[in-house]
Amino acid sequence: MAHEDEVAALVTAVKQSKKYADTYEDTIRELAEDALRRYKKPKQALKAVRAQLHSIMAPYLGDPVYEEAAARLTAVFATQDPVQIKETCRTILYDHLSTRERLPILQTFYREIFHITGKPKSLLDIACGLNPLAFPWMELPATTAFYAYDIHEPRIAFINHYFALQGLPPLAKVQDIALQFPQEQADVALFLKEMPRFARNYGDLGRPLLEALNVRWLVLSFPEVSTHGGRNLVNRYREFMQQLIAGHDWPLTELLFEGELVFCIHKGENASETH
Questions:
Q1: Rounded to whole angstroms, how far apart are CA atoms 124 and 188?
Q2: CATH code that applies to domain 4-57
Q3: Does domain 82-274 have CATH number 3.40.50.150?
């Protein structure tokens, strides 16, 4: 077992890099402990941790400059013009590949999902990225309890800044959902285009995560085609989704948008009582 001083030194080395300085420390610590069990040399362990963080955080998907984006939001909310506010949110959503790909369907995306689940009074956005900025398209009231989880600290600070401007409670939190499943109870949990990477990084943890979520509805989405090569992935992810919920009496409704496959899974009105 790795000594605490070795773990601390490895965590410090990772946090000193510009790329991962703002990553949730508990995530780095967990990866450091695992790497030090697998590698004798600290340099090998450091390389392994950085490689895993690259896969988990996916920096290649893109990010805005959060201080600049926060200033833009502050300025546009001061205008009290909903059209300008929506357009500014749209331009920021464009900075992240996942939400950029969803922009062409955003006008109907949540409307069709909530037609199935009902309009939620509370929701969880797991591994949220920039998705909370899609709130204007959700057509939900400011009384909505909107919980958002991510391991990138500046992103969560930015989302809480946005929530405050939007009149929502600042319920975004820095949390590694692989280390601690969300405990909050809600009507709907969103896990959008993240399960494939979650399964790649954490193996079979996806099913226990879905079982643990204290919600009436699970909404999972997957890319319709591969990022490179445009290979159609619909049948592959249909099979994957069936494997994830096999053995559970959870009715599933499928929505196929241009570019995104969505599954709305009804865990039941009293799902919270089963855990």
A1: 6
A2: 1.10.8
A3: yes
What is the tens place of the pLDDT at every residue in 253-262?
999 999 999 9
E strand or H helix at 173: strand 172-174
Spatial CB neighbours of 246, under 8 Å, sequence gap ≥ 6: none
Under a CB-based contact definition with an 8 Å cutoff, are residues 126 and 149 in contact?
Answer: yes
If you write DSSP's letter for every residue of 176-230 in order, what string do you get? -TTTS-----EEEEEEES-HHHHHHHHGGGHHHHHHH--EEEEEEEEESB-TTT-
Token pair 């059209």 is at which residue?
83
Q: How many CB atoms lie within 10 A of CB 44?
A: 13
Residue 114, Cβ density class (10 Å: 0-12 exposed, 13-18 middle, ≥19 buried): buried
Domain boundaries, the chain: 4-57, 82-274
Instruction: Provide the 10 A C-beta neighbour count for residue 230.
Output: 9
Per-residue model confidence as pLDDT tens digits over 173-231: 999 999 999 999 999 999 999 999 899 888 899 999 999 999 999 999 999 887 666 77
Q: Which residues pair with 172 in a beta bridge?
A: 148
Collapsing DSSP states into helix, strand and coil, what is residue 22? Answer: coil
